[in-house]
Amino acid sequence: MTSETNLPKQFDVVVIGSGAAGLYAALSLPSHLRVGLITKAKLRTGSSKWAQGGIAAAIAPTDSPDLHFTDTIKAGAGLCDPAAVSFLVNNAKAAIHHLVDMGVDFDRKNGELAMTLEAAHSRPRVLHSKDTTGKAIITTLIEKVLERPNIHVVSQAFALQLRRDQTGRCCGVSVLYDGCIHWLSSGAVILATGGGGQVFAQTTNPTVSTGDGVALAWRLGAQLRDLEFFQFHPTALTKPGAPRFLISEAVRGEGAHLLGFNGDRFVFGYHPDGELAPRDVVSRAIFSYLAENAGDPANAHVYLDLSVIPEEEIRRRFPNIIRMCAEWGVDVFSEPIPVAPAAHYWMGGIKTKATCETSISGLYAIGETSSTGVHGANRLASNSLLECLVFAAQLHQFDPPNPDAPEENISPKVVAEHWRRETVKVQTIRADLPFLLWQSAGICRHQQTLDEAIAQVSHWRDQLQEMALAQFLQLREDTTIEFEHPDAETELRLYAETCNLADVAWLILKSAAWRTESRGGHYRLDYPATQPDWQVHTFIEGEEFRRSPLVE
Ligand code: FAD
Ligand code: SIN
Known about the structure:
Layout: E1 10-16, H1 20-28, E2 35-39, H2 47-50, E3 55-56, H3 65-75, H4 82-90, H5 92-102, E4 108-109, E5 112-113, E6 115-116, E7 126-127, H6 133-147, E8 151-155, E9 158-164, E10 170-177, E11 180-191, H7 212-220, E12 224-225, E13 230-237, H8 249-253, E14 257-259, H9 279-293, E15 302-305, H10 311-317, H11 319-327, E16 337-346, E17 349-351, E18 363-365, E19 370-371, H12 383-392, E20 409-410, H13 420-441, H14 447-465, E21 479-482, H15 488-514, E22 537-541, E23 544-548
Parallel strand pairs: 1-2, 1-11, 2-8, 11-18, 17-19, 20-21
Antiparallel strand pairs: 3-7, 4-5, 6-7, 9-10, 10-11, 11-21, 12-17, 12-22, 13-16, 14-15, 15-16, 22-23
The structure holds flavin-adenine dinucleotide and succinic acid.
């Protein structure tokens, strides 16, 4: 790894994000390319590190890519792209072997890779490393990235705005880093910025998941797809003051029961598969159960009872869940875990081809920020880490054009005193927006609440646009800004993230209001049925929404 102190202004490729998608992309790119890996927090911060259950791959003798294909298509509720799914499942084995060769320590049983079952999988096919699979993968990928002299890692660097040249090609990005805004010039930009769970008040996602890539790409004019489809995970720890820590589906896969207030396995009242019904079904079952039975449904929870799983099995498989629950006062061996649903995974995103290309030349997207077509309206558990790797691997023959020569004028230092009042307003929007989205675009949606929320978010977006801070999201590419005030970077970053959240909130709400049916992760109380004529994608370009055919 080269030093961070002198930030180069020119790369062959800039990768934004250091989760599974960004790290694997950087490693897959040909090693003669100068790669800038930009990430807004620490190198290991992101959803990937938190992945618990594992990574799906049909490698057991009783399994096959065809079965994995069928399960993925079924979960996707009519909106998967069969070619993309076929590509995913057929490249899974190679991706896993590469991870094993690099040193990822997957659990084994009798010397063979161990597999577990998760909801809607017809076979046990989820490889795992205890309940910290993501951490095991990320740790190995980071080690490999740091060994590569062609990859220049820049952490604590926030990507603000993408740039296009006169031909319309994406050719760089502005980055807030070390008290300055720098323009980086590059032959191509790869967005690997992850999901947007922070748009909802209840989420399993880490704080960095603010939908930045989708917002940046949208503002540049890229085509987006299916943003209304969000997956709500049924079992997040629900204790006052605690983060919505995920209690992996693998716990139910190993046999744990979801219990109502009277100790009843109430999910069977909603679906014959009970706890192992598809995620959206279990989440809605909990939502409906709490609406019918709890005094204050918004703050209520049901219980996940692990007592049917042998104690040594719990200790072996779920050490991190035991530890996190204990930290919040729950002894999983003697009491059930209080759980409720939380926003978990964004199926929609920046529309991409199998080559990771977006609709804008020079701009690529990988991982949760992309919409490759593999997840449709609902993702099959443990397919997302796999998607990051399989699609990033396509970059091995990447051949970007030479980057433009960087232009640079150091503008006079900007004094930031006058942002204080604006920052107070930004903080209010940042705090209120996720609650509005949780109420209006959460597990169950309705036209009236969606329309009211759209009006409120539009008002917030107007307010944000009118602030003095807005100038820094519209900088000319020959401008480098250096801030004098020590708080300026923090204030501008909060502003930029809040703008991104407001943009993606607006896009999610508009998409959810537009789709007058229920399907996969999108459930409308006023349109509860799935409609054959809605078996189409929601396609967004600028402010235009239209239906687009399943396969173009
Ligand atoms: P991330 O890993 O989220 O990485 C995004 C990166 O982009 C981060 O480094 C972030 O800092 C950076 N970034 C974002 N915005 C900017 C910006 N403006 N400038 C610079 N950098 C930026 N999937 C599975 O397949 N199996 C599982 O078991 C599983 N368990 C999960 C458990 C939890 C708790 C969660 C939240 C998700 C889980 N998922 C699981 C989903 C899966 O982890 C994610 O979909 C996947 O890791 C996304 O990887 P990514 O690289 O696209 O994004
Ligand atoms: C889990 O462990 O339940 C999460 C798996 C996933 O989101 O794919």
